[in-house]
Structures are given as structure tokens and as C-alpha cells.
Amino acid sequence: METTLVQPAIAVLLSSAIAIRAFKRNSLNLSGAFLGFIVMFIHIAVNYRLGAMLLVFFFTSSKLTKVGVERKRSIDADFKEGGQRNWIQVLSNSGIATLLVLIAWMMTRSQDKCLDSKESQLLTSLIGGVIGHYSCSMGTHGRQSLGYLPVRRGTNGGVTKAGLLAAAAAGSIIGLTFVLIGFFTTRCAYDVALKQQLVIPISALAGLCGSVIDSLLGATLQFSGFCSVRNKVSSTLFEIIMTR
């Protein structure tokens, strides 16, 4: 009984500390910190390796948000110090992955497993979905923060070679985390262990693809316009109309 409570207890303590710290540093607002605690708790309580991927994603993306902060402050009407992500942004970045984690838990009961489609195609797909989810999200953050490209005012979707490389590198960090933590939490047959290494280049590809898709959606579906009064780019049509 005590053993089964250790991991949830660690999850509560670690998730609480990180959520409070993120709130104090303005990385998350109150609603974001509350939902972030729940998401972190689920990941860590279910599987340390999946929890590690989430934490690497959170801390890395928070650091990337602070890159070029002066430029963002000067051109973005929606700029917030530290990011101040709300519950909607937390859900967007981790909602699908959290659902996959819960389904995986129902199959493994917190026992870490190697990726092996011969043993279980469904479990491999679920864990692969979690890896792909965070790799895509990391790739998007990497491109947005490190691959800045001046485009015509009021437009979205510009990309650079540096941004695409940053997206691939950021995605690979998730795969690298999965593989490295796996050395301590799983025992795989030699041939299966070798196949685990493929997660790293696949994660890099996922980061790149996620970034490109995000750019395409931004260029075709996301509205942004230039507010000549505030001299900033805004994603709110009403604000642009009212300041004219």
C-alpha cells in the first residue's frame, strides 16, 4: 500500500511546487497554474518518464518564451510579461497528451514499458502519440522564438531556415528525454532497446512537421492586423476597428 502511494505523493509535491513557482514567475496565471497542477500530477503519477517529457516541455518552452522579449513587447499587442498562459493554453498544449496518458495508465497501471509494437500495438501508439504531441508543440515554440522572420505587417506564417532547424532540434529534445529516462525506468531486450533510439529522429521530424503545420494555419486561418494607433500587431479585429 505504501509503495503504491509513493509515486502519487511525489507527483503532488512536485506538481504543487512547479505550479506555484510558475504562477509567481508569471509563466502561468491562476487558472493556468491550477490546470497545470492537474496535468503535471496525472503525468508524473502515471509514469515518471511521461512526466519527465512534460516537465522538459514546460521548462524549455517557458525559457523560449523569454527569447526576444523586447521585440515581442514592442510589436505584439497581446504581449504579457512571462507569458502568463491561461487554462485554455495549458489545455491546448497538453490536453490530448493527458488523455492518452490516462488511457495508457488503464493498460499498464504505472508500469513503464518499452516501445514494442509486437507486444502491444495499442500501447505503443498511445505512448507514441504523447511523444509526438509534445514534439510538435516544442517544435512550434522553437520556431516562433528562434526563427523570427519580419513579414508584411498584419500577416502570419513567415518561416526561416533557422526557425525550421530550431523546430527540429526542439522536437528532438522530447525524444532524447524519453530515451534517456528509459535507461533507468525500463529493461528492454537488446533489439527492442536499439529501436528505442529511433524515437529521437522521429521526434525531430515531428517537431519540424508541427512547426510547418502551425505556420500554414497561421498564414491561412489566423487573423492578425496592424493597429496604426498603437503601432502593434493585434489578433483582435474589434480592437483595430475601434482604434481607427
Provide an overview of this structure:
This protein is mostly helical and 244 residues long. It contains 10 helices and 2 strands. Strands 1-2 form a two-stranded antiparallel sheet. The longest helix has 26 residues, at 121-146. It is globular.
Lay out the secondary structure.
Elements: H1 2-24, H2 30-46, H3 48-65, H4 69-75, H5 87-108, H6 121-146, H7 161-185, H8 190-196, H9 199-220, E1 225-227, E2 232-234, H10 237-242
Antiparallel strand pairs: 1-2
Helix pairs in contact: 1-2, 2-3, 2-5, 3-6, 3-7, 5-6, 6-7, 6-9, 7-9
Keyword list:
71% helix; two-stranded antiparallel ribbon; 10 helices; mainly alpha; 244 residues
Helix and strand sequence: HHHHHHHHHEEH
User: What radius of gyration results from the CA coordinates?
Assistant: 19 Å
Total number of domains:
1
Describe the strand arrangement of the main beta sheet, using strand numbers.
1-2
Q: Give the proportion of residues in helices.
A: over 70%
Q: What is the straight-line distance between the termini?
A: 65 Å
Morphology: globular
Estimate the mean pLDDT confidence: 82
Low-confidence regions: 237-242
**Record field, number of beta strands:** 2
Structural class: mainly alpha
> Could you tell me the strand content as a percent range?
under 5%
* Number of helical regions: 10
Q: Largest sheet at a glance?
A: 2 strands, antiparallel
Main location: membrane
Family: Belongs to the TMEM19 family.
Pfam families: DUF92
Subcellular location: Membrane
